[in-house]
Design goal:
single chain; alpha+beta; 10 strands; 26% strand; elongated
C-alpha cells in the first residue's frame, strides 16, 4: 500500500515540474505585446534627434467630444515598429482646464515620463502654449519615449484651436531638447 502512495506522490511531483517548465517556456517565448519595450526605449537613431512628421495613424473609438469630454491619445507601436496613437475620450471634472486635464491624463495613462513628473500649468498667448513641468521631466526618458511624449502632446493640444505652437519648461527653465529629441519650435498636430 505504501508503494502505491509513493508512486502517486512521484507522479504528482513530476506533473507539477512539467507544468512549471511549460509555463516558464511559454512566458519566455510568447510574443510580446505591441507596447514600447526597453528595446524600443534604448534605440537611438539620428532620425529621432529632430522633430519630423512621423507616420501617425489615429483611430477613434468614441464619438466627438461634448461638454467636458476631451480627446486623449494613447501610443502604440504597430508590427512594423511605427508609432501610432489611438484616440479615446475622457471626461474632465467640472471646472478643470481641459488642456491641463488631457495632458495630465496622458502622463498618468502612458507612464512614459518619470512617475514624479507633474504638469504645473499650461498658458496660451498668441497661439503659443507654454507647458510648465516640474524638474522630474528632465529624467528617465528613452529615445522612443521622448518622441512618443512629444508627439502625444502635439496631438492632444492640437485639438484646441487657440494653440498652434508649443514650448516646454522644466523647473522654470525653457527646454530646447528632451534628451536627444529637439523640442524647439514645436507645432501642434491636427
Amino acid at each position: 500500500m505504501k508503494n502505491k502512495g509513493s508512486r502517486s506522490l512521484l507522479v504528482i511531483g513530476l506533473t507539477s515540474a512539467i507544468v512549471v517548465v511549460a509555463l516558464g517556456a511559454y512566458t519566455k517565448f510568447a510574443p510580446a505585446n505591441l507596447v514600447p519595450t526597453d528595446e524600443h526605449r534604448n534605440q537611438r537613431t539620428t532620425e529621432e534627434t529632430k522633430i519630423t512628421e512621423p507616420k501617425i495613424e489615429v483611430k477613434s473609438n468614441q464619438h466627438k467630444a461634448e461638454g467636458t469630454d476631451v480627446a486623449v491619445f494613447l501610443p502604440k507601436f504597430d508590427k512594423g515598429n511605427n508609432l501610432t496613437f489611438e484616440r479615446t475620450m475622457a471626461r474632465a471634472p467640472r471646472g478643470e482646464d481641459l488642456r491641463e486635464f488631457a495632458v495630465k491624463n496622458f502622463l498618468e495613462t502612458t507612464k512614459i515620463a518619470d512617475p514624479a513628473t507633474r504638469l504645473l500649468s499650461i498658458s496660451v498667448k498668441d497661439g503659443l502654449a507654454t507647458l510648465s513641468f516640474n524638474a522630474a521631466l528632465n529624467s528617465g526618458f528613452g529615445s522612443d519615449d521622448e518622441r512618443t511624449f512629444v508627439e502625444g502632446i502635439r496631438l492632444i493640444l492640437g485639438q484646441f484651436k487657440e494653440i498652434e505652437r508649443l514650448e516646454f519648461f522644466a523647473d522654470g527653465v525653457k527646454l530646447d531638447s528632451l534628451g536627444h529629441f529637439e523640442i524647439d519650435n514645436v507645432t501642434v498636430k491636427r
